[in-house]
Every structure is written in structure tokens, then in C-alpha cells.
Amino acid sequence: GAGVSQSPRYKVAKRGQDVALRCDPISGHVSLFWYQQALGQGPEFLTYFQNEAQLDKSGLPSDRFFAERPEGSVSTLKIQRTQQEDSAVYLCASRPTRTGANVLTFGAGSRLTVL
Amino acid sequence: DQQVKQNSPSLSVQEGRISILNCDYTNSMFDYFLWYKKYPAEGPTFLISISSIKDKNEDGRFTVFLNKSAKHLSLHIVPSQPGDSAVYFCAAPDYNTDKLIFGTGTRLQVFP
User: Does A109 touch chain B (CB under 8 A)?
Assistant: First the structure.
């Protein structure tokens, strides 16, 4: 597609539920990033893929967070046993190259609300 | 430890006047900086960037200035337009890992 597509756009979960957030990057983009944006804050890095390889997951806040990109295109961010502090907008971004040219194209985000 | 800081959470400017958004950083290894603009319910979109080998980069109404000795950069919008009303984020790529580190953002409101 023309841009980065994320689904669902809005998700309400009860505390303890598992959620899965999907990202369709721009076709052919090698690098894919997940960010978490809490209310009133800037995006904070979660994890980074280069093709199907997860090269950096240092930003994942706990082992309840898991991300995958098995075929080097679509990526899924999974949050197990959601907690209220997980409420945030989850942004996916991609870029065509592996390194350099640090302009990321972002999707519109998935807003997660945990009750 | 916040490596990229935007100390003004909001800014209100009259249409036609200059908007100046500020950003400070602490990591002297940063060598490239970007500004992103975000409208409600949309993802951030790239606006303008600057390399540390320059002290100014201009693109139409948008100019970014970099003062490396002060570890400070600013985004100037001249003239400001109501469509510029958005949240602006300053960002820098981490030297070691290549991930972008964002500031907390400044909400700009341009009123008629």
C-alpha cells in the first residue's frame, strides 16, 4: 500500500486480556520499528526489525510484550495479560533501508485502552 | 535520562507571525536531528532534518537551526498558518542502535 497501515485503530481490553496489534509496512521496506506513545509523551522505542530479524528489543517494557515479523513484511505486537499502564498509542514505522536515512514513515497508530 | 528535551509543552502564535519551537539534547554523539509533525489521530510525519555538519537547513516556510556548542536546535515557521497547528517532535537517531529518540513534543496552536 501507499503508507503504513495499522489495525485495529482502537482497542479496548479488560485487564488481563491478551491483545495483538498488526502493522503492514510500506511494501519493500526493510526496517520496521514499534514505538509506544503514552498520553502527553513522545514516542518511545520498543523494538526494531530488519527484514524478519528482530535486532533490538531493548525497549519492550516487560516479558508480556512480544513482537514478530516472520516473513519480513507484516509485523504483530502482542501484549499478554494487559495492565492499565499498557494503555497508550502503539505506533509502527518503516523505512526502505537498513541504516542511515533515518526518516521513518509512521502509521496512524493503534490506541489501546486497558480497563 | 531524557536525551532529547522539549521544555515547552505548548505554544500559541497568531497567524502570519513566526513560530519558534525549541529542543535541547544531552548526548554529544548525536549527529543528525529530525522534526516530526503530528496531527490528532494520525501518525507523526517527517518535516525537516539537519545534519550536525550544518547549522541551518531551510525548506520553504520551515527552517531548523542547530547550535552544537549549546546542544540546542530550534524550528522556525514563517509565516505561521492555522494548518500548522499540531504537535511537533524533535528526534535524534541513537548513535549505537540507530533507533530514533524523541522529545516529549510541543503543541503549536496558530490562531487567526
Answer: yes
